[in-house]
Amino acid sequence: TKRTHLIFSYKGKNVLKKQDLPYKQEGEGTSHLYRLVLKPDNTVRVEIDEEQVYEGSLKEDWEVLKPKEIADPEDKRPDDWVDD
């Protein structure tokens, strides 16, 4: 399968974009200019040969941050729970 990967390095770990970018290879032996613009608000723009192919959120489209757990106030240990 032909596809364009976009990998972002975060804290020494390579993080792959969740969805592939459009494949932009017309012919063999043709060079292309790839540009990633990371903005201060954590939005990202990707250009291939100065044509925008993607714009979105670093936080939503890459698995950069671990999912946050939300404490469930209704969650309780069973009555017969034993701490070691």
Category by helix and strand content = mainly beta
Order of helices and strands: EEEEEH
In what order do the strands lie side by side in the largest sheet?
3-4-5
Q: How many helices does DSSP assign?
A: 1
Largest sheet: 3 strands, antiparallel
The gyration radius over C-alpha positions equals: 20 Å
Q: pLDDT below 50 for ≥5 consecutive residues: which ranges?
A: none
If you had to describe this structure to a student in words, what would you say it looks like?
With 84 residues, the protein is mostly beta strands. The chain is built from 1 helix and 5 strands. Strands 3-4-5 form a 3-stranded antiparallel sheet. A two-stranded antiparallel sheet has the order 1-2. A hairpin with a 2-residue loop joins strand 4 and strand 5 (51-57). The longest helix is centred in the last third of the chain and has 4 residues, at 58-61.
